[in-house]
């Protein structure tokens, strides 16, 4: 459930974290905490496509087991797990969103 939420809201999470990081303010303790959380989110959200790709390729032989499917099935829902190319679908999907979010935030003046 949480995995599906992160996959579906990935673009919004990236944009919000990048904007928070871009317009930092160090006036109060709450804003400093917000900046630290934003840096952590940006770091984790940038690594997320790599982690997904690594997980799916490493465990592609056991993805059809019920225990794995129940726990991590949101990563490869509606994908043919027999095909290595199909397992890269979420990687490309997330990377496109990541590049779009970085473009929106950092190329705003162009």
What would you say this structure looks like, in words?
This protein is an all-alpha fold and 110 residues long. The protein has one domain (2-106). Helix content is 72%, strand content 0%. It has helices at residues 2-8, 10-22, 29-58, 66-72, 84-87, 89-106. α2 packs antiparallel against α3 (29-58), α2 (10-22) packs parallel to α6 and α3 (29-58) runs antiparallel to α6. The radius of gyration is 17 Å and the shape is elongated.
Radius of gyration, whole Å: 17 Å
Instruction: Please give the largest β-sheet.
Output: none
Strand count:
0
Mean pLDDT reading: 84
Order of helices and strands: HHHHHH
Shape: elongated
C-alpha end-to-end distance = 38 Å
Helix fraction, binned, reads over 70%
Number of discrete helical segments: 6
Secondary-structure class: mainly alpha
- How many domain units? 1
Poorly predicted segments: none
Please state roughly what percent of the residues sit in beta strands, choosing from under 5%, 5-15%, 15-25%, 25-35%, 35-45% or over 45%. under 5%
């Amino acid at each position: 459930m949480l995995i599906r939420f992160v996959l579906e809201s990935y673009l919004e999470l990236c944009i919000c974290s990048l904007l928070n990081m871009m317009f930092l303010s160090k006036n109060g303790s709450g804003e400093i905490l917000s900046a630290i959380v934003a840096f952590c989110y940006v770091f984790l959200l940038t690594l997320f496509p790599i982690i997904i790709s690594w997980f799916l390729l490493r465990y592609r032989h056991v993805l059809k087991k019920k225990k794995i499917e129940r726990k991590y099935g949101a990563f490869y829902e509606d994908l043919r797990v027999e095909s290595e190319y199909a397992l890269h679908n979420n990687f490309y999907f997330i990377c496109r969103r990541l590049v779009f979010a970085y473009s929106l935030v950092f190329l705003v003046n162009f």
